[in-house]
């Protein structure tokens, strides 16, 4: 962001509903409405910059290279990501969930039922290290890593046999399976993850301004309204 442009450029990996997706060609979702509101509070125009990489973690390289001013993409705060970007205060708390085709695997009701089964994750998603640990502990059979933009294929594979379960953040997975017969989210709350806007390392000025706008949006009820609309609950968890 520069004084000349007066535009807040927001990097997002689409589609990732309900955080960001396209509805009739136009951007929509929680992060879209939230960052538009932040931009208004800051007196800035708003621009969405789609991240098209196959590994979500590459979005932090794009941020460092100046492709956008901040990231708002249902982004979980992790120690590894803190080493690559600075994060604002979290605006949501959520966690990983597990989906299966219950016609294929009626006995799978959660991570305790994954022994010998293959779990699909997106490349760079925070579900990946969780499933890696399950496999290392012998609690799951294998991990299948899909390119970040191939989540649709992963969900198709639940029914065709390409994988047995898919792990992803609960609001997103709940949205994605709603029109898929027999595919259900069978467990939520597998992890506890804080979701926040990220800015370039050292950009304290923009971080402070976004956090100030976020506090205003929390105080006037905008954040609660957006959580209710897109996540289904007005509170963070």
Automatic annotation (TrEMBL):
Pfam families: SBP_bac_3 (PF00497). The keyword Cell cycle does not apply. CDD domains: PBP2_peptides_like (cd13530). Residues 7-234 form the Solute-binding protein family 3/N-terminal domain. Keywords: Signal. SUPFAM superfamilies: Periplasmic binding protein-like II. InterPro entries: Solute-binding_3/MltF_N. This is Putative ABC transporter substrate-binding protein. It comes from Rhodococcus opacus (strain B4).
């Amino acid at each position: 962001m520069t004084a000349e442009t007066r535009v807040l450029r927001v990097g997002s990996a689409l589609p990732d509903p309900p955080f960001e997706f396209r509805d009739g060609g136009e951007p929509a979702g929680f992060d879209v409405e939230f960052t538009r509101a932040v931009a208004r509070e800051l007196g800035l125009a708003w621009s969405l910059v789609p991240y098209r990489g196959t590994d979500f973690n590459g979005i932090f390289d794009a941020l460092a290279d100046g492709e956008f001013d901040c990231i708002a993409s249902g982004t979980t705060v992790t120690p590894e990501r803190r080493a690559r970007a600075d994060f604002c205060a979290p605006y949501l708390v959520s966690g990983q969930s597990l989906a299966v085709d219950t016609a294929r695997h009626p006995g799978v009701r959660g991570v305790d039922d994954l022994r010998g089964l293959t779990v699909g994750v997106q490349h760079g998603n925070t579900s990946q290290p969780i499933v890696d640990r399950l496999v290392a502990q012998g609690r799951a059979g294998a991990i299948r890593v899909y390119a970040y933009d191939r989540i649709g294929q992963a969900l198709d594979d639940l029914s065709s046999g390409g994988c047995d379960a898919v792990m992803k953040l609960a609001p997103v997975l709940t949205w994605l399976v709603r029109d898929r017969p027999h595919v259900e989210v069978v467990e939520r709350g597998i992890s506890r993850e804080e979701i926040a806007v990220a800015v370039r390392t050292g950009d304290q000025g923009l971080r402070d301004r976004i956090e100030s706008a976020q506090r205003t949006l929390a105080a006037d009820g905008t954040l609660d309204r957006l959580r209710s609309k897109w996540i289904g609950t007005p509170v963070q968890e």
